[in-house]
Design a protein that fits this description.
This protein is mostly helical and 184 residues long. The chain folds into two domains: 2-49; 89-171, no CATH class. 58% of the residues lie in helices and 0% in strands. It has helices at residues 2-7, 11-28, 38-49, 89-100, 105-125, 132-142, 151-164, 168-180. The longest helix is centred in the middle third of the chain and has 21 residues, at 105-125. It is elongated. The model is unreliable at 168-176 (pLDDT under 50).
C-alpha cells in the first residue's frame, strides 16, 4: 500500500491514501491504542516504510532518518557437531560422560535415564520412528558399543517414568486433586 501511495501523482491523493494506511495500521493493533503517542508512532512507521520519500503533510513531526547507521554484525552462534540432531547436544554430552564412567549401577541408572530422555526426544521429533530398538542402537552408537540397553528393563523403567514423572498420568492426578479440594 505504501508503494502504491508513492506512485500517486497528486499530493492530495497521496495524503488521502496515507490517512487510510495509518487508519488500517491502527485497526490492525487496536490493543495498542492506549499507548501514548500511538498515532505519532504510526505516522513515523509510515515514513520509515516509505523510506522518507512520501511527499505529504504529516500531522506530526516525523523522526528524521539517521544516516550512517549500519546494521550490527551478526552474532556468532556456537555450532557444534551433533551426531543425531533430534537428541540434541546435552544428551550427546551425557553419553560421553557415561562412556567415561566405570561399569556399575550408577552407569546403568544413567543409561536408563538417558535412554528415557532419548525416547521422549524421538517421540517429539517423529512418533513413527519411536522404537526401543532405535533408542538402544543409537545409545550403543553414541557410546561406541560400551553401553548395551536391556530392552525389557528399559520398557519397565520408561513406563514407570511416564506414569510418575510428568507423563499424562501426572497431569490427570494433579487436576483431580485440585477438584477435590474444598475452599473454606
Amino acid at each position: 500500500m505504501v508503494d502504491y501511495a508513492l506512485t500517486l501523482p497528486t499530493k492530495s491523493e497521496r495524503q488521502r491514501c496515507a490517512n487510510t494506511i495509518v487508519s488500517i495500521m491502527g485497526n490492525m493493533f487496536p490493543h495498542l491504542r492506549d499507548v501514548p503517542d500511538f498515532k505519532h508512532k504510526l505516522w513515523d512507521h509510515l515514513a520509515i516504510m516509505a523510506e522518507y520519500k512520501l511527499d505529504i503533510d504529516y500531522p506530526y513531526e516525523i523522526i528524521p532518518q539517521k544516516e550512517g547507521i549500519a546494521k550490527p554484525e551478526p552474532m556468532a552462534y556456537p555450532m557444534k557437531k551433533i551426531k543425531y540432531h533430534h537428541y540434541g547436544y546435552l544428551l550427546e554430552s551425557l553419553t560421553k560422560k557415561m562412556e567415561e564412567m566405570p561399569d556399575g549401577p550408577e552407569r546403568e541408572e544413567l543409561a536408563m535415564m538417558v535412554a528415557c530422555q532419548m525416547k521422549k526426544c524421538l517421540n517429539g521429533w517423529n512418533k513413527d520412528a519411536m522404537d526401543d530398538d532405535k533408542v538402544a542402537s543409537d545409545l550403543e552408537a553414541y557410546t561406541n558399543g560400551m553401553v548395551h540397553l536391556d530392552k525389557e528393563k528399559f520398557q519397565k523403567v520408561y513406563d514407570f517414568y511416564e506414569k510418575n514423572q510428568g507423563g499424562r498420568y501426572n497431569v490427570t492426578n494433579r487436576n483431580n486433586t485440585k477438584k477435590n479440594k474444598r475452599k473454606n
